[in-house]
């Protein structure tokens, strides 16, 4: 049937797009240098990846524990119900991120050049 | 059938299907899913929306989808998730409607469009709210998961649509 064929073409196109996008991300990646933490779109803090640290973000009712160890960052504990941020594992490459939607938290790896604080801080 | 009865029938259908969509959302929330990417899900309730789109019409599909998202968010989710859910649901419904009207795809293809555009809507919304373009890194995974979920949903909805179509024409003979 013609519609079935169109369905297959559609699936192939989407799969191709996903593969291209993945390759572009994978090949373009480089080691990061800093971990930038953003809550609700505004800067919470920035931490070097080469220094081990444990950082608590938020208060008792809504929090995430960020651990930086051996040049990798991960969320080990969180107050959110789904714990997706904990399951997202460890990040180390420029552009990788851990997101916790319930707590509006974004943890991302940034590149080797430390950006200007004053331009971002609000 | 008088015009008044028609409205009553529509309201009953819409209510019934909204309830069904809500139950499916609840059932889905019971299934543990261990993929660590936000937004990866089956979208069982989309079976109902897809069915409504083909069998009942655009307006009813929109009403069912909207009421389901709002009620399910308040019952099982947190209020903040409403923005994500709604942006995904609206984009997905508009895209499915467009491709259904074009008529080149079967319900399976339309389901795939729905799954993928739902994920796309949510991630675009998250990029705007969280002010980070980095979320685009989740897109490859979400494209694939949206396609897979869309195929499953489309197959089920397609079966329903075909069988009821056959029952209708059979009944009129």
Explain briefly what this protein structure is.
The complex is a heterodimer of chains A (122) and B (173). Chain A is an alpha+beta fold and 122 residues long.
In CATH, the homologous superfamily of the largest domain in chain A goes by the name N-utilization substance G protein NusG, insert domain
What is the number of domains of chain B?
Answer: 1
CATH topology of the largest domain in chain A: mini-chromosome maintenance (MCM) complex, domain 2
Percent of residues in beta strands of chain B:
under 5%
- Label the overall shape of chain A: extended
Which CATH architecture of the largest domain in chain A? Sandwich
CATH architecture of chain B: Orthogonal Bundle
| Series of H and E elements of chain B | HHHHHH
Number of strands of chain A: 7
State the secondary-structure class of chain A: alpha+beta
CATH C-level class of chain B: Mainly Alpha
Task: Please give a handful of descriptors for the protein shown.
heterodimer, A: 122 residues, alpha+beta, mini-chromosome maintenance (MCM) complex, domain 2, 2 domains, 4-stranded antiparallel sheet, 3-stranded antiparallel sheet, B: 173 residues, mainly alpha, Arp2/3 complex 21 kDa subunit ARPC3, 6 helices
Question: What does it look like?
Answer:
The complex is a heterodimer of chains A (122) and B (173). Chain A is of the alpha+beta class. Chain A is 28% helix and 35% strand. In chain A, the strands form two sheets. Chain A has a four-stranded antiparallel sheet with strand order 2-1-7-6. In chain A, a hairpin with a 2-residue loop joins strand 4 and strand 5. The radius of gyration of chain A is 18 Å and the shape is extended. The C terminus of chain A is likely disordered. Chain B has 173 residues and is mainly alpha-helical. Chain B has a single domain, classed as Arp2/3 complex 21 kDa subunit ARPC3 (Orthogonal Bundle). Helix content of chain B is 80%, strand content 0%. Chain B has six helices and no strands. The two termini of chain B are 19 Å apart. Chains A and B meet through helix 1 of A and helix 5 and helix 6 of B.
